[in-house]
Task: structure prediction
Amino acid sequence: MGRIVLDQVSKRFGDVEVIPPLDLTIEDGEFAVFVGPSGCGKSTLLRMIAGLENLTSGGIAIDGMDMTEVPPSKRGLAMVFQSYALYPHMTVRKNIGFPLRMEKMDQAEIDKRVETAARSLNLMDYLDRKPGQLSGGQRQRVAIGRAIVRDPSAFLFDEPLSNLDAALRVGMRLEISEMHERMQTTMIYVTHDQVEAMTMADKIVVLQAGVIEQVGSPLDLYHKPQNVFVAGFIGSPKMNLFTGPEAEKHGAHTIGIRPEHTEVSMTAGQWEGRVGVAEHLGSDTFIHVHDTGLADMVTVRITGDISVKHGDTIYLTPQANQIHKFGAQGLRIE
Amino acid sequence: MPIVAQTSKFSTFGRPVLAWGVGLLFFFPIFWMVLTSFKTDADAVKPENLVFFTPTLENYFNMVENYDYWRFARNSIITAVSATIFTLFVSIPAAYSMAFNPSRATKDILMWMLSTKMLPAAAVLYPMIFLAKGIGLYDTHILIITVLSLINLPIAIWMLFTYFKEIPRDIIEAGKMDGVNTWGEIKEILIPLAWGGIASTALLVFIFCWNEAYWTVRLTTIDAATLSKLIEGNRAPEGLFFGRLSAVSTAAVGPIVVLGWFCQKQLVQGLTFGAVK
Result:
């Protein structure tokens, strides 16, 4: 069980309001991702749920119990830190078993649980090593092991993959997703990487300057961004956003079109421009187009390879039903 | 090029010579003290017996038999060990709290603690003596342990604070998430991780307590008198007996020099810790 309800939660550091009062519910078993640019308050929010940061106002309930004043050790949550935060003076076995030892669990039971966790994380060969003798990926596995042995009501992840190299990051991302599928335990995951958010989440919470911009499933956010910020933040490459005459034609202050929703032609189309850089990924090609008169740069994404070079004239046509329209306040217009 | 050559010549020959020179300069008084302790009082003041003399253990026998050396030594051990333990007992939680739960006042409190070291001891000498006598603690172990602890607390807290600051906050927070209470954080995480720092702080405090003379001489007569008092007590109206005095001094500083020698690596690390990040 792990239903987490934030009720008018806010945080101030001195005179700075980091998080204005916000409400949020994370359902039992849900994989929620807090995503936003650095400094948006997502880690602070996670630390407030963990109990590592006091609330300035509001309340937090876990499974219907008020946890606002409960110390972190008594909330039944487990956390995985960006820096792994392993105990350097303990072996892997001791690190993973530490929370159980703190619960005064029977040593035989601790050993059993540690081995089960270690086996599922491929750490059996490293149980008697110290964290200093492990690679980054192995350390992160130990940190995850330390979290899962306790059978917590929810897992909190604070940018757990940021210190890993790209290849390892993709692997660990999958492992965490699979772990969630298997355990069906509530997980709250903080990241600044919208790809992680899109691939892992049941529910994404997009934050900016402490304010929730939108809450929804990854595809909700992709297809129906509620405002310009979410439109620009979710999706890679970024959505192209235009203001001015082109937007006014659609009765909007700003319009947005995703790179993959634009047709490309070398002969004719709605917008004319010149190729700046073409990035060939094999499966896709990203073309960055200049001099369209719409914005400094328009990015388009084409499946497969296309041979264009710098300076070529190119024509772009947006798919009419894929144009997102936003009003003067930045809010979506249907 | 010539400059490079000169520098390397200096580091090959000059630097060791300089280091040995400085080392010997500092070592000489100790050497002289030990040497003098094996001379009779008469030999000790004779210029012709400066280096060549017939060594004798007379001063040491005299010290043990007539001056009750072991009682002073026992008092020194009791007060220095207890004061060190008590100091750590108070300073570890204090430094922990300031390092991991700092408030707006933390910096000011640290400065205030340091400022107490700026007070000249002489300024509170008579109040301290009257107070000690008034509450009936004059010349007791309790009093000396308390005074030694209090005068060493600021430096101990400062040193430990510096060490604890180096421990990543995440590790302490991971402990909190893993169900550890405050005492558990100190016992299970902080002390094992800062073991080197705590050991060098303890060592330094112990040395300061052992060598302390201003208060131990003035707040004791006989029951709680330490080795510092024994040295001080070797003044006589007829003058100083250098042989005897040297023997007492050697026996007083001996244990701490030996201890310091064995722990020098730890000590140097402790004193320079945090100087370079």
